[in-house]
């Protein structure tokens, strides 16, 4: 069985991520299959739009008998760990091709609809945030949790998180906090909330034809949206004040000085993350706020190379983070340095020096 299923019905290209036991986490072969389908359909006059979803690991179709499962839990982090330790060149290919796919989706000339049901994290955000229409449900659990494995919010995370209102981008990037579908709409990471029970009929309705524009498609689907005008309690003035501080140490000090439950819980969460990568991520988000997408993706490609090679092998914060979470599962990463207060600007600066001249950058063709 293929990990990516594609078909064309009624002038719509349908993509189903079909690796449900891994929560549809992306492998290199899946990235290549997605890219091939989108490039072919881009040039196909018989395809007017594209829709993408994740499948369920329940053979009966998941809860409520639905065919929809986790949208995509991210990249295959066990592969990252194995490839980094083995010196497997496919690790480089994975990130170059994934980021090129992200750019393709953001710039796709035809309507692209992402059915973001269930878990939508990491790489799943990369194949959905550039969609013309981003649909979430009451089952959506969304995050960019990369700091938990000593990485950074990639796949264009710098670009789309930095464009959230206020300092929500810094908060989500640094903490990796999981948010609901309703919250995602409120902070601009989704366009509409629909009931999960409505997804099968909505998916099939796209094949009924009559898609002549992105606006027309949005109008058709918007009729299924659930009204949601509530602003999440955590997107408060306190969040903006705290996460506008100049440094991670300053953010932590502000949280500790506040003393509220939210501040205390947020400080405890940050203390679990890689101190070095928290500082890298804060710099990433703030640089990305003034960048075009292609430039952000090139910066992130530089960053990911450094994550695995500035400190190669087991010395890498990312290799150690994946080990603790997904390999040994001891949930006790040994970060270096161990304390936020011990990180210096000299440790962070090399991450933002490209290892390639501009003419040789692996993403030099993105515009």
Automatic annotation (TrEMBL):
GO biological process: L-valine catabolic process
UniProt KW keywords: Hydrolase
Gene3D superfamilies in the cross-refs: 2-enoyl-CoA Hydratase, Chain A, domain 1
InterPro entries, per the entry: ClpP/crotonase-like_dom_sf, ECH_dom, HIBYL-CoA-H
Pfam families the UniProt entry points to: ECH_2
The organism's place on the tree of life at top rank: Bacteria
Domain spans labelled Enoyl-CoA hydratase/isomerase: 12-352
An annotated Gene Ontology molecular function: 3-hydroxyisobutyryl-CoA hydrolase activity
Full protein name: Enoyl-CoA hydratase/isomerase family protein
Organism of provenance: Variovorax terrae
């Amino acid at each position: 069985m293929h990990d990516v299923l594609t078909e064309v019905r009624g002038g719509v290209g349908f993509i189903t991520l079909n690796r449900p036991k891994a929560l549809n986490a992306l492998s290199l072969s899946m990235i290549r299959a997605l890219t091939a389908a989108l490039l072919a359909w881009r040039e196909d006059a018989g395809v007017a739009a594209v829709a993408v979803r994740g499948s369920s690991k329940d053979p009966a179709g998941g809860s409520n008998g639905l065919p929809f499962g986790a949208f995509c839990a991210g990249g295959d982090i066990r592969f990252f760990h194995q490839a980094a330790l083995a010196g497997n060149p496919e690790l480089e290919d994975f990130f170059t091709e994934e980021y090129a796919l992200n750019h393709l989706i953001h710039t796709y000339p035809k309507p692209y609809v992402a059915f973001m049901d269930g878990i939508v994290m990491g790489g799943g955000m990369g194949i959905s945030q550039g969609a013309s229409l981003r649909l979430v449900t009451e089952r959506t659990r969304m995050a960019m949790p990369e700091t938990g494995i000593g990485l950074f919010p990639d796949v264009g995370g710098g670009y789309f998180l930095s464009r959230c209102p206020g300092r929500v981008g810094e908060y989500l990037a640094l903490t990796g906090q999981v948010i609901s579908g309703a919250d995602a709409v409120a902070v601009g990471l989704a366009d509409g909330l629909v009931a999960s029970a409505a997804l099968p009929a909505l998916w099939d309705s796209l094949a009924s034809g009559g898609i002549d524009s992105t606006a027309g498609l949005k109008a058709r689907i918007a009729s299924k949206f659930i009204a949601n005008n509530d602003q999440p309690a955590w997107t408060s003035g306190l969040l903006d004040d705290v996460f506008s501080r100049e440094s991670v140490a300053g953010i932590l000090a502000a949280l500790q000085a506040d003393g509220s439950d939210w501040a205390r819980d947020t400080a405890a969460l940050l203390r679990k993350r890689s101190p070095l990568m928290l500082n890298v991520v804060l710099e990433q988000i703030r640089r990305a706020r003034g960048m075009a997408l292609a430039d952000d993706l090139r910066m992130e490609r530089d960053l990911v190379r450094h994550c695995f090679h500035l400190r190669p092998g087991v010395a890498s914060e990312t290799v150690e983070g994946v080990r603790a979470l997904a390999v040994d599962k001891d949930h006790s990463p040994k970060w270096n340095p161990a304390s936020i207060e011990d990180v210096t600007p000299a440790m962070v600066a090399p991450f933002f020096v490209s290892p390639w001249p501009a003419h040789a950058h692996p993403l030099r063709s993105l515009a």
